[in-house]
Amino acid sequence: MRRDLHDDPGSGSLSLPGVMAGRGFLAIIDVTVKRGLDVLAAAALLVLLALPIALIVVLIRIDSPGPGFYRCRRIGFRGREFKMLKFRKMHDDAEGPALTTKGDARFTRLGRFLANSKLDEVPQLWNVVKGQMSLVGPRPEDPSFVEEWADAYDTILEVRPGVTGLSQIAFAKESEILDPEDSVGHYLTSILPQKVRMDQLYARRRSLLMDGRILAWTVAAVLLRRSVAVHRETGRLNVRRRRESFEPVGSMQPAVVRQPVEGP
Q1: Angle, helices 25-48/208-222, rounded to nearest 10 degrees
Q2: Phi, psi (5° rounding) for residue 14?
Q3: Nearest 5°: phi and psi at 43?
Q4: Rounded to two decimals, what is the model's pTM?
């Protein structure tokens, strides 16, 4: 089932996701509480971080000509397209693949630090306040990638995408894994299939307790710089104790597409 990618976001909607529709009244409470916590937490963080955000914007503009923010086209809740906000980490006239790799020449000096520290994701708190994203959820993807996996995304798009989530934690060092010679092809055949499985798992099993665990492990991954492993079948998280290879999952092998946008 393909969805309309051009609907308005409808930020105030609290409609029950299809994957939870059979769970009754408790599911309605769960979705409502999750949305309320998202708004309160994101708004509070934006207020607390207002000065650091303003400082980063100034430093970005000093470091290289161009705006302080970058708006990426992404597909969100129920297939609605929205603009995901990030700090700009590339030169304003940068072109190339839709993904970034280790040592990407398109990064500015400050942009490389923002990407490595994940600070470039902070402006997405505004998307959370607007109702386009949640603090925890599947990673929102570029429309071209979603189009390649339209059937698989039917379940994923029934929940709001998240600033963090199972696939975001599992592939926190994605740029170090991607093949610099064919980043998009490698992403579509080896990494995205695994992300799809984890995001489908989250959409089917999500709960406030799971969200709390994901947020806690996000702190471990981002602030404590721990490498976190995600069990592909259960969603269980723990510290990665050995290097894991990232092989294609199943037989899902979509065609390669390229698009000149700043990387996720």
Answers
A1: 30
A2: -125, 30
A3: -65, -45
A4: 0.81
Cβ 108 vs Cβ 115: under 8 Å: no
Burial class (CB in 10 A: 0-12, 13-18, 19+), 264: buried
What whole-number distance in Å separates Cα of residue 163 and Cα of residue 45? 13
**8 A C-beta contact, residue 152 and residue 128:** no
Beta bridge pairs of residue 90: 107
CB 128 within 8 A of CB 163: yes
Task: Give pLDDT, residue 136.
Answer: 98
DSSP lists the bridge partners of residue 84 as 72
pLDDT tens profile 96-129: 888 988 888 999 999 999 999 999 999 999 999 9
Joined tokens for residue 243? 């290097």
